[in-house]
Specification:
heterodimer
């Protein structure tokens, strides 16, 4: 198990290095460089001043040195300053990361809490009205765009209940009630898609497991239905479900980009979109790398969790 | 003794017959793949009403996109401020927007953009993924190792975030959004094709082709490629829905299709959100168009999978 974890960890390093190369390369294939673009768009600036600023930002170095410098900055948690606001990127991240973590965590909890029971009910009552209703909700969840659902939720909450979520961000520790009001709707919108994918997978794997011999034996022994489903079937059915949840982490993190923009939450997603719109490339490359690193780590944890769910899995 | 001789004689005959059948199976040309696939699809469409519904919906969307100029009652770019924000009525079934443009005409023309971007992005992404997957699966070894790590690195970055970064680098417009979506699609497609190629390589007819000295390109194109077209088409149909969703999201975030071109995502972000309480129809109809299109392609992808790849049925 430890060997496996170590091997996976070592495999993650080249993947992250390649991701960093892709991100760095992307930011460097802009026509001209980012600074020319930024300054050129903002007004007239002399070539001399441009060279001065370029030197300050180390954009005059050869690409490989720029890359090495950026990697070092990333590893030492000092990714530099924003080109647009001049604020250190770490300061912006310190404000934005907790918002995104809270949003993603709440969405994930909501998604799983809704999806697993509905998936189980759908499977145990196959082809019933409840099953059809669950499947329609699941397919809709995969088809309805986050930004449309978010827009509709805000619109109809305002039209029907004369209520809109409080704007801005209040920390959970400062005012939990206001924080919940701010996060509940965005988390529900974000969790809906995750719930849809999880629901479909739970249904199909529970259906498969319920046809296994050991489940038939459990029924034959006269065990209560709840025990057969939840104790015997569900645990084995959970492995593909964990896989699909792991696979959805990327979708979830990408979803925060849209949901945070709609609900005006100052998280990582919104920070990235703003940086992209203002072509603030140090912020873009830092944020994208941070998300990639988080995703690789989370996927590693998901892989490791299989061992806990299924003792048959031997990683050695 | 006599009995054992008889038994061994029977076993010999059985093994001879088995070998003959196996040889015959290899020799007899399989029924036309295309005809059997079309039949399988027709059967699945008859058996699954939702599949038939999705196919009909796709036909409607495609026809709408092709005949948009004929079907739309007004010019989608024509502004008539005197009838701005008109409620849905007989003259304007989907109402008008903030500068008096007919929403129905814009939704109809939006189908063209969405489908065009979706088809081209999926076409490019699938073709590139197929080439990489074929090469990796057939050659294996170092080439496979290198390509797979690059694919891992691309997949480590959430699709939407990668697309956003690419579009920001290339400048926001419809073509660049399409390129970005294609790049996002490549890794997943290459993985599926690679797996299918590795499995097809184990077939005896491929071994036989190698043994009689067929050239590699011929083996790949004549013997392996026909076996991997089903997974490619299935995944392409599912990706088409996702591509439409990503294009709409990019346009919604302001980095996809640019105004005044009618795009579903753009319609939602520009006027849909700004006037959502005053004129909810501006948000409802484009969103409905996106959801129905994505739903149609998702359901159709499921039906294709059921028809052509029974092994994957439980993956739903």
């Amino acid at each position: 198990m430890y060997k496996y974890a170590l091997r996976r960890l070592l495999l993650a390093v080249p993947v992250l290095l390649l991701s960093s190369l892709i991100v760095f390369g992307l930011m460097r294939i802009m026509p001209g460089d980012a600074l020319t673009l930024l300054m050129g768009e903002s007004g007239n600036i002399s070539e001399r001043d441009l060279a001065k600023v370029r030197k300050q930002l180390r954009l005059d170095l050869p690409y490989h040195e720029q890359y090495a410098l950026w990697l070092w900055q990333m590893v030492s948690f000092s990714p530099g300053d924003s080109l647009f606001t001049g604020e250190p990127i770490t300061t912006s991240l310190k404000k934005a990361v907790p918002v995104t973590i809270e949003l993603a965590a709440l969405a994930m909890v909501l998604g799983i809490v809704i999806a697993v029971p509905i998936g189980v009910i759908s499977a145990t009552r196959q082809d019933s009205t409840a099953d059809y209703a669950g499947r329609v909700v699941a397919v809709s969840g995969l088809s309805i765009p986050d930004f449309w659902l978010g827009t509709l939720v805000i619109t109809f909450a305002a039209l029907w209940f004369h209520w809109i979520p409080p704007v801005g961000y209040t920390s959970l520790w400062v005012d939990p009630w206001r924080n919940l009001q701010q996060f509940l709707l965005p988390a529900a919108v974000l969790g809906f898609r995750l719930a849809a994918a999880t629901m479909r997978m739970t249904r199909s794997t529970v259906l498969e497991v319920l046809r296994e011999d050991y489940v038939r034996t459990a029924w034959a022994k006269g065990l209560a239905g709840r025990i057969v489903v939840y104790k015997h079937a569900l645990k084995n059915a959970l492995i593909p479900v964990v896989t699909i949840i792991g696979g959805q982490l990327g979708v979830l993190l990408a979803g925060t980009v849209v949901v945070e923009t709609i609900f005006a939450l100052p998280g990582m997603g919104r920070l990235t979109v703003e940086a992209i719109l203002y072509r603030d490339y140090p912020v873009v490359q830092t944020n994208v790398m941070l998300v990639a690193g988080t995703l690789v780590t989370l996927n590693l944890l998901v892989d490791l969790s299989y061992a806990w769910l299924d003792p048959r899995i031997r990683y050695s | 003794m006599r009995g054992s001789t008889r038994a061994s004689g029977t076993a010999e005959r059985v093994s001879t017959v088995t070998a003959r059948v196996a040889t015959l199976q290899d020799e007899v040309p399989p029924p036309s793949v295309e005809i059997s696939r079309t039949r399988a699809l027709a059967h699945a469409l008859r058996r699954q009403p939702l599949g038939a519904f999705s196919a009909a919906l796709i036909v409607v969307i495609v026809l709408t996109a092709i005949f948009a100029d004929v079907l739309s009652p007004y010019d989608p770019l024509e502004t008539r401020p005197e009838i701005r924000l008109t409620r849905p009525a007989w003259d304007h079934p989907f109402g008008t927007d903030d500068i008096g443009r007919d929403v129905l005409s814009r939704v109809i023309h939006g189908a063209r953009i969405s489908l065009w971007v979706g088809l081209l992005a999926v076409g490019i992404g699938t073709a590139a993924g197929m080439v990489i997957g074929l090469l990796c699966g057939y050659c294996e070894g170092r080439l496979d190792l290198i390509f797979q790590r690059v694919m891992d690195a691309i997949q480590a970055i959430p699709g939407l975030m990668l697309a956003l970064a690419i579009v920001s680098v290339l400048r926001p417009n419809t073509t660049n959004a399409m390129i970005a979506i294609a790049i996002v699609i490549i890794p997943g497609n290459s993985r599926i094709v690679r797996g299918a190629v590795m499995s097809a390589k184990q077939n005896r007819y491929v071994e036989a082709a190698q043994a009689i000295g067929c050239q590699h390109p011929r083996i790949i194109l004549s013997h392996i490629l026909p076996n991997v077209t089903a997974p490619i088409l299935i995944i392409a149909s599912i990706w088409l829905g996702n591509a439409i969703l990503i294009e709409a999201t990019l346009s919604f975030l302001g980095v996809g299709t640019q105004p005044p071109t009618p795009s579903w995502g753009l319609m939602l972000s520009s006027t849909g959100r700004a006037f959502m309480e005053q004129a909810p129809w501006l948000a409802v109809f484009p969103g409905l168009a996106i959801s129905l299109s994505v739903l149609a392609f998702n359901l159709f992808g499921d039906t294709l999978r059921d028809a052509w790849d029974p092994k994957l049925r439980n993956a739903r």
